[in-house]
Amino acid sequence: MRSPASSIVFKVSRREPELIAPAKPTPHELKPLSDIDDQEGFRAHLPVIQIYRHHSAMQGKDPVKVIREAIGKALVFYYPFAGRLREGPNRKLTVECTGEGVLFIEADADFELEHSGNVLQPPFHFLDEFLFDVPGSSGIINCPLLLIQVTRLKCGGFVFALRFNHTMTDGSGLVQFMTSIGELARGELSPRILPVWERQVLSARNPPRTTCIHREYDDFTTAIPFPLDDLVDQAFFFGPNEIAILRSYVPPHLRHCTTMEIVTACLWKCRTIALQSKPMLEMRILIANNTRKKFSPDLIPKGYYGNGFMISTAVATAGELVKNSIGYALELIRKTKAEMTREYVQSAADTLVIKGRPCFPVEGSYGISDLRNLGFREVDFGWGKAIYGGVAKAIPILVSYYVAYENEKGENGFVLLACLPAQVMERFAEELQNLLQGAKPFSDGDRLSPIVKSAL
């Protein structure tokens, strides 16, 4: 395999996939997912990648062996991951805890991390080499719930890549599971935080009733309005300088906005311009809100590893987003986030059941998931913290991720992972660069800023 940007020729050699079962006997039982877990929009597998340097204290230890054994131990506590999903009446998903195990692949790559060029940089164009799609493994029903590949590098570092069934867990839950693997790999007898199932806390009432507005489940077509043979993955770095520039666009009455809110507002506008949508088309920004520790008393118990985030949705027409200042989009985002209450969470679960577990509308929708503070980079299997840790790619067209990242200059910030049709991506990158350079103000309400380039 040749890396076009760095001219590196590399090869990854993989052994046959195997199943890792729990290290001890576990209960054989049925565990229903929550009504948030099993919605249509979560019925997908998502890839995560963790990259680790050589560590002198681990000299002579094999990361494949250490992690393989730790996974078996972790599955004793997280035994539903070793089971398989079954679908019942009304498309309700339940885990049958069969103890069959998770898929595991041992691999070796013939290059060193220091000379890897763009091979191991977001948006990970060579992900397939480090996370092999085992034929027949990527279904939602009756398939393994996790696929893990550990790839040794010549320098003593390694790549830990994982694909997870999103109905089973979210980013927070996955970090909790991977952290448990790391703790067991480092010699602990049990995870520091024990897993909690209790999926009923995010299930519908009986009878279900919609009490809030949920524009994320509007009855619109879910057809993708673009061909899928011309998609481009790209990563954009946001460091302190970029954030400072974007904050200069914030109107005074919104100056207390978060970094996530102002960046999301800017991206929503840039993407809308790039799509060249009809002015009256409704554009939705779907924002993932982690509801752990959000309410008092807690809605979700400590140790819960199911999907514990809810979607806030702001809506505006394409014409409104294009003609108005960034402050307009920012205000909509802040307003919809403020509406996230305990009743909103319950109403969302009820609405999903009432509407038959619908998917999100695709045309005009843009999802943002902020993974910066979930702890992916802190996952330690014994070799220290990860150089990169988090989701490896965006969901084509629909969802972008913010992932904590340190660039080559040593600046700490985050990368935006995006996937769009080639021409749309070109316009999106240009609009974002214009905004960061202040070369072309969007409207009279946006202020100019000095030039700062944003690139990996």
Write up what this structure looks like.
The protein has 456 residues and is α+β, with helices and mostly antiparallel strands. The chain is built from 9 helices and 18 strands. The strands form 4 sheets. Strands 3, 4, 6, 9, 10, 11 and 16 form a 7-stranded mixed sheet that branches. A 6-stranded mixed sheet has the order 12-18-17-15-13-14. The chain has a 3-stranded antiparallel sheet with strand order 5-8-7, with no helix packed on it. Strand 17 (399-406) and strand 18 form a beta hairpin. Helix 5 packs across helix 9 (422-437). The longest helix has 17 residues, at 259-275. Mean pLDDT is 92; it is low at 439-456.
Structural class: alpha+beta
β-strand percent reads: 15-25%
Oligomeric grouping of the chains: single chain
SS field, number of helical segments: 9
Query: Which regions contain 5 or more consecutive residues with pLDDT less than 50?
Result: 439-456
Label the overall shape.
globular
Helical proportion? Answer: 10-25%
Mean pLDDT comes to 92
What string gives the helices and strands in order? EEEEEEHEEEHEEHEHHEEHHHEEEEH
Largest sheet: 7 strands, mixed
- Number of strand elements: 18
Write the layout of secondary structure elements.
Blueprint: E1 2-3, E2 8-9, E3 12-14, E4 18-20, E5 30-32, E6 45-52, H1 63-77, E7 84-87, E8 93-96, E9 102-109, H2 127-130, E10 146-152, E11 158-165, H3 171-185, E12 231-238, H4 240-247, H5 259-275, E13 282-290, E14 309-317, H6 318-323, H7 326-338, H8 342-354, E15 365-370, E16 388-391, E17 399-406, E18 412-421, H9 422-437
Parallel strand pairs: 9-10, 13-15, 15-17
Antiparallel strand pairs: 1-2, 3-9, 4-9, 5-8, 6-11, 6-16, 7-8, 10-11, 12-18, 13-14, 17-18
